[in-house]
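User: structure tokens for this one?
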Amino acid sequence: MNTRSFVKTAIVVLAVPFSAIGAVWFLYLLDYNMSVGVWVGLIALLGVDAETGVFMLLYLDLAYEKAKKEGRLRSLADLREAIHEGR
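Assistant:
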């Protein structure tokens, strides 16, 4: 609902399971026990991941709209520059 776009929401929602899988793999490689503290950390990680995804999309959208408004989107290199600016 924050992005007003199903595609952008799907991008953020799909990023969360990938970070969770990576965290569980990392916990397995380091041979950690699944304690309450680890679960709280995983829940915090998922929240931060979703929030970061929303902010990244926001800044990318702002940079894209600014470049489009200024007429700087004439080639793929211009698009890449706008993406770099939005990072």
